[in-house]
């Protein structure tokens, strides 16, 4: 059969035939402009299942527009003015009946007088935002620590040293609440220098035995807490309060050896990478693309966070081995841990709770082996270390 696509009468007949076979849900009056003339046509608007059909007063089908082809044209609030998207003809239909307008709105996605599409879009955006937040949380809680663990061994020690220097400056500023400046560090005043020399001697023995691939910088700070910290890059803080609690050089050496274990295992670097990466992710989520001040967060991370039990146990094992190497007392770490845990003063970062402390001390004693022990420093040098923060005028 030869198609009649070029014959307008054939097209009109095909529209009529289709109109007869399709059920009509709604039929209401409207006004139609065919775009070819300025004539106004009173029409009947029929809502078939797939198309909007426009009939003339004599019953002829003037146009059929699919619902997904409709576009809303500018009009007064009480008028729904429609056109066919992409049509070269400027035909338009005006509907004043609110029920008919609502029925068209319901069938046609492009027609959105009720705001349905906007609400749908807002719902989608909300759901996607929630999904993105959940993904970030999952990455932060699970993925970031795993990435940090894999990335830490790849960081050059020179880079780690620079990171530690930046954290050191920020950490000192945070701890030095009295703004003592250089006097915040013990061992620099005239009557403290002998204590500094004895402390350096003790550190030198531990550093030589440890043979770490990075130089150490250990200082004693005028802080009352019985505490010690190891920063990335070999920076170690020993607080005055820890010296006050230590009764023997081996107890002090055992705590420092524990911190050297964190340096050797690069625990501080891994922790900093994990926490600063999390802050960067959430900073992006909140619009802070700088990452929230990585160095500041890194310093707070080292000063405030506690390592896991496995990480602390590994550092304890390192301390026991190192004390064996320097022929010190490998059980001294457990002794001072017990003493600090038994006081009302807040314990150091290496303590979490008393039951765990008892388990750790038991593990330390189990790892310690009998062997020759040599004094790390003499009694006079130990007395000098105990006076390393004696210059009260600089506090």
- By secondary-structure content and strand pairing, the structural class works out as alpha+beta
Helix percent band? 40-55%
Distance between the termini: 107 Å
Q: What are the segments in which pLDDT stays under 50 over at least 5 consecutive residues? A: 1-6, 138-144, 280-292, 343-349, 351-355
What string, H for helix and E for strand, traces the elements in order?
Answer: HEEEEEEEHHHHEEEHHHHHHHH
By DSSP (H or I, 4+ residues per run), the number of helices equals 13
Portion in beta strands: 5-15%
C-alpha Rg (nearest Å): 40 Å
Shape: rod-shaped
Question: Secondary-structure blueprint of this entry?
Answer:
Elements: H1 8-21, E1 26-33, E2 41-47, E3 51-55, E4 61-66, E5 70-73, E6 80-84, E7 92-95, H2 98-107, H3 116-151, H4 157-175, H5 193-210, E8 217-221, E9 228-231, E10 235-239, H6 240-245, H7 249-265, H8 267-285, H9 294-304, H10 309-325, H11 332-341, H12 354-367, H13 379-386
Parallel strand pairs: 8-10
Antiparallel strand pairs: 1-2, 1-7, 2-3, 3-4, 5-6, 6-7, 9-10
Helix pairs in contact: 3-8, 4-9, 5-7, 5-13, 7-10, 7-11, 8-9, 10-12, 11-12
């Amino acid at each position: 059969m030869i198609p009649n696509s070029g014959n307008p009468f054939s097209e009109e007949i095909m529209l009529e035939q289709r109109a007869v076979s399709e059920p009509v849900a709604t039929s209401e009056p409207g006004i139609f402009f065919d775009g070819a003339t300025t004539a106004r046509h009173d029409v009947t608007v029929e809502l078939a299942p797939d198309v909007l059909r426009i009939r003339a007063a004599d019953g002829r089908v003037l146009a059929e527009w699919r619902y997904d082809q409709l576009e809303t044209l500018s009009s007064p609030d009480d008028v729904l003015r429609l056109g066919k998207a992409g049509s070269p003809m400027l035909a338009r239909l005006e509907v004043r009946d609110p029920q008919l307008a609502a029925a068209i709105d319901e069938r046609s996605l492009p027609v959105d007088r009720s705001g349905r599409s906007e609400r749908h879009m807002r719902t989608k955006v909300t759901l996607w935002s929630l999904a993105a937040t959940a993904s970030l949380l999952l990455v932060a809680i699970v993925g970031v620590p795993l990435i940090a663990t894999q990335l830490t061994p790849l960081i050059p020690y020179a880079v780690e040293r620079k990171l530690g220097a930046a954290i050191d400056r920020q950490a000192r500023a945070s701890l030095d609440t009295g703004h003592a400046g250089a006097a915040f560090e013990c061992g620099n005043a005239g009557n403290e220098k002998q204590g500094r020399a004895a402390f350096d001697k003790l550190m030198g023995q531990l550093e030589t035995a440890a043979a770490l691939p990075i130089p150490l910088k250990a200082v004693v700070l005028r802080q009352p807490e019985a505490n010690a910290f190891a920063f990335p890059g070999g920076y170690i803080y020993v607080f005055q309060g820890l010296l006050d609690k230590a009764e023997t050089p081996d107890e002090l050496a055992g705590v420092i050896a524990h911190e050297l274990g964190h340096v050797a295992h690069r625990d501080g670097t891994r922790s900093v990478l994990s926490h600063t990466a999390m802050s960067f992710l959430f900073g992006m989520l909140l619009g802070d693309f700088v990452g929230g001040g990585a160095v500041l967060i890194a310093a707070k991370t080292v000063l405030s966070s506690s390592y896991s039990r496995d990480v602390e146990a590994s550092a304890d094992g390192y301390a026991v081995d190192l004390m064996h190497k320097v022929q010190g007392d490998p059980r001294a770490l457990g002794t001072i841990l017990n003493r600090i845990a038994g006081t009302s003063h807040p314990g150091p970062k290496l303590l979490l709770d008393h039951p765990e402390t008892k388990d750790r001390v038991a593990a330390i004693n189990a790892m310690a082996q009998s062997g020759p022990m040599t004094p790390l420093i003499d009694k006079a040098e130990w007395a000098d270390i105990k006076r390393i923060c004696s210059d009260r005028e600089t506090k």
